[in-house]
Design goal:
Layout: E1 2-10, H1 13-21, E2 32-38, E3 46-53, H2 56-73, E4 78-87
Antiparallel strand pairs: 1-3, 1-4, 2-3
Length: 94
């Protein structure tokens, strides 16, 4: 499993969520199997999103699409976007 982790500041959660829900990268057809959205408890203007993939080719294509999209949105809706590809190394239930 691969995860793309996206982190960035936002101008407004409601505006950001509307844009996210419009799904400009077509998550399902891009190979996203699951996603999770996080907000720090102490910063309502920051978002962390995890997108999970099974296919590394689809994950890399989505990462490229995200980087291009964020370049167009920088300074309006989002600020300082970081996109990282993560490989799961270990998981355990305790």
């Amino acid at each position: 499993m691969l995860t793309i982790r996206i982190e960035h500041k936002i101008s407004s959660y409601d505006a950001w969520k509307k844009a996210f829900d419009n799904d400009p990268i077509n998550r399902k057809n891009s190979g996203v199997k699951h996603y999770r959205i996080f907000r720090p408890e102490d910063d309502d203007k920051y978002i962390v999103i995890d997108l999970d993939f099974e296919d590394p080719v689809q994950a890399k294509a989505t990462q490229a699409a995200l980087n291009k999209m964020f370049g167009n949105l920088e300074g309006n809706l989002i600020f300082g976007a970081q996109v990282k590809m993560l490989s799961q190394v270990e998981t355990a239930a305790l």
